[in-house]
Write a structure and sequence with these properties.
alpha/beta; CBS-domain; Spore Coat Polysaccharide Biosynthesis Protein SpsA, Chain A; 2 domains; three-stranded mixed sheet; 9 helices; 30% strand
Length: 344
């Protein structure tokens, strides 16, 4: 049982002892089947004692039934903002039948996204040789920390509890480094490709996901992309897939003449054109992943083209934060400099 959870049959004295050990944190009261019944603070207990309660009395009559909570697989930015505005740091995460799954510390989290994630980490990193001859690219260190670990830690800060890592080249090093994820308080599972399956084919090795939507990203990215904004864009647009992109501007130093047939229809003086490059980060409906040919070579771009051809909603999310694809030695060197000035 989590230290913040106390059984409804406990006494005021036991609750006080628990609160003292937790330095004043709120307790969440549950029944014998771990269903949430109420919350209890030191203030609730003080008021009970002032009102004549004794230390041997049970806590059931003094707990508050008006408490904030977050439901598993449900997401509301507004609710999270309300909880933060109320200066509540600890909040229970409940299942559909109101059982306490976890107690979240919102002071340590950026968001609570109902997502599982897949990180693609099976590539050989050929362009970064000789560094990748004995070390898989995801474990190359930037500022003393493996590239992939930055992404895992940021997913954790956004409430992601289950992460699949697709591995192939020098896979044992990655598996040995992260283990089952328990040291980080999450579950890490490994997708071991039997053959090279592209940037999305390995997702078909997972029999069943526990969330309706899946975040997929490359392991060799250094980025502080706002995952919550990405997910909100995906939801707001009722998309089946969201693609994070990097805006790329091209400045034309001359006047551009636009024509139709042989006629000039407009003249733009030194225009700037903005294009969007694929950033290697996606949110995809789990049901879409079931449409991918099983355990075969399949890229994320193949799914994008399929959905577009079928006139299904694919939405764009321009990354306005930092993003760097560490593919070449010059990218690796840039990352070493940039990371000193980034707040991850």
């Amino acid at each position: 049982m989590l230290p913040n959870i106390i059984n409804t049959e406990s006494t005021i004295k036991q609750a006080l002892e628990r609160i003292d050990k937790l330095s004043g944190q709120t307790l969440f009261v549950s029944d014998n089947e771990n269903r949430m019944l109420g919350s209890l603070t030191d203030g609730d207990i003080r008021r009970a004692l002032i009102g004549g309660a004794k230390l041997e009395d049970g806590i059931e009559n003094f707990m508050s039934s008006d408490f904030k909570f977050i439901k598993q697989n449900e997401f509301s930015t507004q609710l999270i903002k309300e909880i933060r505005a109320a200066k509540i740091d600890y909040v229970p995460l409940l299942s559909a039948d109101n059982k306490i799954i976890d107690v979240l510390n919102l002071d340590e989290l950026d968001s609570v996204l109902p997502l599982e994630a897949i990180i693609m980490a099976g590539g050989k990193g050929s362009r970064l040789r000789p560094m990748t001859l004995t070390t898989p690219k995801p474990l190359l260190e930037i500022g003393g920390k493996p590239i992939i670990e930055y992404n895992i830690d940021r997913l954790i800060k956004n409430g992601v509890k289950v992460i699949y890592i697709s591995v192939n080249y020098l896979k044992e090093q990655i598996k040995d480094y992260f283990g089952d994820g328990s040291q980080k308080g999450i579950s890490i599972k490994y997708i071991e490709e039997e053959v090279i399956t592209g940037t999305l084919g390995s997702a078909t090795y997972v029999d069943k996901f526990s969330t309706k939507d899946i975040l997929v990203m490359n392991s060799d990215l250094l980025t502080d992309v706002n995952f919550e904004d990405l997910y909100e864009t995906y939801l707001t647009n009722q998309a089946e897939m969201a693609i994070a992109t990097v805006p790329y501007e091209i400045n034309i130093p001359y006047g551009v003449v636009e024509t139709m047939d042989s006629s000039v229809v407009s003249l733009k003086e030194k225009p700037t054109y903005t294009y969007y490059s694929n950033a290697g980060i996606y949110i995809i409906k789990a049901s879409c992943l079931k449409e991918i040919p099983q355990k075969s070579f399949y890229n994320a771009t193949d799914l994008i083209e399929k959905l577009i051809t079928e006139k299904r909603k694919v939405t764009n999310f321009p990354i306005l934060n930092y993003w760097l694809d560490i593919g070449k030695p010059m990218d690796f060197e840039k990352a070493q400099k940039d990371v000193k000035h980034l707040n991850f």
